[in-house]
Amino acid sequence: MTETSVCQDCCQIVKIGEDGSVEPHSSEPYGEHACASSGLLTGRVADIVATSAIKAHPVRQSNTRLRLVPARLAAHSNSPHRPAVTSDAMPAPKWLPQWQGGSLASVLLPASGWLGVWIPGYSKTAQAYRVQDLTQRNVTSSWSAGMECWTVNSQHFLTVANTLMQRHKVILVGREYNPREKCTESCKNAQRPLCTCSCRAKNHGGGGWMTGWSMAGEFESTVNGNSWHWIVTSTA
To answer: Which residue, 2, 66, 158, 206, has fewest beta-carbon neighbours within 10 Å?
Structure first.
């Protein structure tokens, strides 16, 4: 028997099929874009293997089985739930490096301007809501055509990175830096995590801003002539 319920992701009335999956529906009344929860199994029904996180995880291999919950509930939990990729899922920014052949949830810290965030599997509209949710506050997000992703104020860097890491387990963190900028005592004794000097933030504040992080890899890239340092990290 098909039952009627309310989608906990877009708040639209939806039907739940006999197999427990949410039937395809729009993210807004009479809209053209499918909600990210379309086709997902409800939390009452089935366990699935979280293959996406395992594929990108170079440190701790696991076949942990995870209980799938509706998207809004997952957004407020510590589950490494990743959504099924929908037809309108936003592609990764073209300049975003891949790790082991795939794109990870990413936090992008430019030398100036706002913090960029990209989350795989969601539409552009759905990502906007989730980027705001990562700050755990009611803050403004802004679309950046240059970065090809949604952005928030860079003061939320650590909150966003730590929350995204809790939910996706393995993430990519990139920051723009100046290889000609000397690392001074002011950098080594800094309190906040924002840094652009040649130490690539490794000496910044004694590296304390990375407390609880387990780095699985790091590499460099050049974006529009500017130097970027990337780390693949997970919860320790």
So the answer is: 2
Is there a domain that residue 130 lies in?
yes
**In this structure, is residue 73 part of a structural domain?**
no
Task: For residues 127 and 229, state if they share a domain.
Answer: yes
The rounded distance, in Å, linking the Cα atoms of 5 and 178 is: 53
Residue reference for tokens 């929350």 = 163
- Residue 38 and residue 110 in one domain: no
pTM above 0.85, yes or no: no
Same domain assignment for residues 41 and 124? no
Looking at this protein, which amino acid is placed at residue 113? G
Range of the domain at 25: 1-45
* pLDDT tens, the chain, 236 aa long: 445 566 655 556 667 776 666 777 766 555 556 776 666 654 432 222 222 222 333 333 333 322 223 333 233 333 334 454 567 899 999 999 999 889 999 999 999 999 999 999 999 999 998 998 888 777 888 999 999 999 999 999 999 999 999 999 999 999 999 999 999 999 999 988 899 999 999 999 998 888 899 999 999 999 999 999 999 999 86
Structural tokens at position 53: 């996180």
Q: Of 14, 30, 45, which residue constitutes the final position of a domain?
A: 45
Query: CA torsion sign, 186 to 191 to 197 to 199?
Result: positive
Same domain, 12 and 113: no
